[in-house]
Amino acid sequence: MAEAPNTQQLDKGDDVSRPASAPHPPLGRDKRGWHVSPAPDGRGAPPGEKPRPAHRNRWFLWFVVALLALNWLSLLLVQPNSQPRETVPFSVFLSDLRGGEIKSVSAKADAVQGTLRKKVRYPAHSKTATPTALFATQVPTFWNNTQLSAELEAEHVTITATSPTTSESILEELLLGFGPTLLIVGIFVLIFRRAAKAGGGMGALGTFGRSKARRVEPENIRVTFADVAGIDEAKAELTEIVDFLRDPTRYARLGGRMPHGVLLSGAPGTGKTLLARAVAGEAHAAFFSISASEFIEAIVGVGASRVRDLFTQARAAEPSIVFIDELDAIGRSRQGSVSVTGANDEREQTLDQILTEMDGFESTDAVVVLAATNRADVLDSALLRAGRFDRRVAVQAPDRAGRAAILKVHTKSIPLARSVDLEAIASSTPGMVGADLANLANEAALLAARRNHEKVEMSDFTDALEKIMLGAPRGIILGPADRERTAYHESGHALVGMLTTGADPVRKVSIIPRGMALGVTLSTPDTDRVNYSREELTAKILVALGGRVAEEIVYGQVTTGAESDIQQLTMIARQMVGRWGMSDLIGPVAVLPSENSGPWLPGASETSEDTQRQVDEEVHQLVTDAHIEVTALLTAHREQLDSLAHALLEAETLDAIDAYAAAGLPAHVAAPDVVR
Ligand code: ADP
Ligand code: ZN
User: Fold this and answer.
1) pLDDT in the model for residue 168
2) Which residues contact 667 (CB under 8 A, 6 or more apart)?
3) From the CA atom positions of the chain, what is the Rg in Å?
4) CATH no. for residue 570?
5) Interaxial angle between packed helices 638-651 and 534-555, expressed in degrees from 0 to 180 and rounded to the nearest 10
6) What is the DSSP secondary-structure string of 74-142?
7) Does residue 501 share a domain with residue 602?
8) Which of 362, 395, 428 is the last residue of a domain?
């Protein structure tokens, strides 16, 4: 049983797929004999992919030489001379001159440097100063230069002059001249080397434009349609693509044109990536995957060249699939977005290049671009035109039967105890998508391993589900006052939920702090919900208010604990009024700004200020009415509230049955209650 945790291998980002030990039938080979490229010995690799160590080394050598030179120069410059040059006041210089101690001077404009006939310390009494014959001084501008010259001549001092514009030392000149250049060159080398590393350790300069797509060869793809469950419509639509990839000419013969672009749209975790890999696995096609955001770099034009590179590789590896995840990152509608920076140019160029590549497909090219997005509504219409992503497949969240099928796939390699009822788990997980269910199966297996179970039992599943739905306990201890308040708060939610028609049945109430919450009341519908009536939405608002109102009734004051409740109910109320046409005053008019309409320009709102005020008033009215209703309800059922709260204080966590019993209400009977 200890191996169970390792059985969940189909997760996102896992390119190489299962380990050899995983129970998977070997893939049948395509009769036409798909080619493997590049061959293990490097034949058939796209040009430029061969490592170019010499090139890279030369760059590196130059860099090292430059660094060394820089180092040497700076050392020379700062190295203390054996004889430091002392800067002395002009008066000292004059007295030295008149005392005949100066051997030579060299002047540059008003600056004078010179050598004494013998070494002295300066200041004269200092014990620490190094004796030196070198000095420097500055001639005041008001000084009589003629007289100074005469005196210098009289003392037989050697005089030299330097042009005021040339710098004094070659070293300094070198440093000033080449230092910045060397630095910039060095930085560039560093950048290129880093880019090269990110791009797969190839050459230096060329790699910027190389695609970062991950490539999986056909023989390494172990995912097939058998691994995809619960989204049968999407699967059915894609079988045609598989057929086409296996034999592109068959379709062309009859004059048909297969779509070269398929857009998979659906919520995160519904299995879009999995589906794309399964298509590649079924068709024995090479699989290139990249996230659209990976095309974009700060430098304009890089994205487009990456796209070119990716498609060149994909064409060379026919049959192949190019999977572009999060297409909306570059494919957002160009209308309405305001370009302030150059970021949009880069996005557009990249997008245009993708479109150009797709337009360039021959009907027999066995390359299919699968793109995934969870925001199909924001995509640029240019993407959806004929010949591009003209086939769209909606990947829906699975229904109850679908969830059971997905659980079956993900428990294939987990030893299950007889008590495990996948159907029951499926019916108590409405709203969960494939990724959630895969995670659930994995958590259950982990839990079973930790508990030293022989097989994964139903209790492992229910506890794993509880952990996923409610969050893991936080491990803080509430003081008695806070505990009681939390108990009343949660009891308020739960009791309103039990007493209101249209509210989802209460599954669990708990005052164990988890995540951000001090307590939790879990209520889930019996069946999958795709549509809510006005009554049901109002019930949600009532239940959300229950916690706060219970505090008001019991303590006469409120705390900050109801913040997320308030956010939630406000959101529902606003959408009821502004999006779903459930307010009589506003009517069935969408007055909330749609999410995709980019940054607002001042004054670009679609609705008048008047309407907005009306929306606010309607929302306020809705919530106020609900507040009155809940207050009346809980005041009338105060005794039940007390007994539920006390039961909760005692047990900390109540299942549906116990909670309904504590409130003196008949238990809700419906789908098997797995969350316990
Ligand atoms: P998406 O790309 O839609 O965000 P993924 O394909 O990455 O979702 O799904 C993540 C993981 O969830 C998959 O690797 C798989 O293990 C599991 N999964 C999702 N949907 C399904 C499904 N329909 N059938 C089986 N497993 C699924
Ligand atoms: Zn609450």
Assistant:
1) 55
2) 656, 657, 660, 661
3) 39
4) 1.20.58.760
5) 80
6) HHHHHSPPSSPPEE--HHHHHHHHHTT-EEEEEEETTEEEEEEEEEE-SSTT-SSSPPEEEEEEE--TT
7) yes
8) 395
pLDDT tier at 620 (50, 70, 90 boundaries)? very high
> Are 136 and 73 in a shared domain?
no
**What value, to the nearest 5°, has the Cα angle with vertex 373 and ends 370 and 379?**
100
Do 647 and 509 reside in the same domain of the chain? Answer: yes
- Pocket-testing residue among 16, 274, 399, 406, ligand 1, by greatest number of atoms within 8 A of Cβ: 274
Distance, CA of 411 to CA of 442 (rounded, Å): 9
pLDDT value of residue 344? 66
Quote the CA–CA distance of 477 and 518 in Å, as a whole number: 10
- Residue 245's domain comprises 36-46+217-223+231-395
> Does 638 have pLDDT greater than 80?
yes
Q: Angle at Cα 263 formed by Cα 266 and Cα 224, nearest 5°? A: 80
Residues within 5 Å of ion ligand 2, judged at the Cβ atom = 547, 565
- Shortest-distance ligand to the CA of residue 516: 2
**Ligand nearest to the CA of residue 408, numbered in listed order:** 1
CA of 99: how far to CAs of 95, 137, 151, 634, in Å? 6, 17, 11, 108
- Atom 17, ligand 1: which residue's CA is nearest? 435
Please compute the mean of the pLDDT values over residues 252-261 and round it to a whole number: 76
Atom number of ligand 1 nearest to Cα 14 = 14
Known catalytic residues are 490
Q: Which atom of ligand 1 is nearest to the CA of 395?
A: 3
User: Both 490 and 635 in a single domain?
Assistant: yes
Same domain, 296 and 269: yes
Q: What is the CATH number of the domain that holds 261?
A: 3.40.50.300
Q: Ligand 1 site: residues with CB under 6 angstroms?
A: 10-12, 228-231, 266, 268-274, 372, 406, 409, 434-435, 438
CA of 222 to the centre of ligand 1 (A): 15
Any idea what the CATH number is for the domain that residue 406 is in? 1.10.8.60
Q: Are 445 and 8 in contact (CB under 8 A)?
A: yes
Burial class of residue 434, CB neighbours in 10 A (0-12, 13-18, 19+): buried
Query: Token pair 């060379």 is at which residue?
Result: 316
- What predicted TM-score, i.e. pTM, was given to this entire model? 0.61
Element (H, E) at 564: helix 563-578
Q: Specify the pLDDT at position 15.
A: 31
Q: Establish if 625 belongs to a structural domain.
A: yes
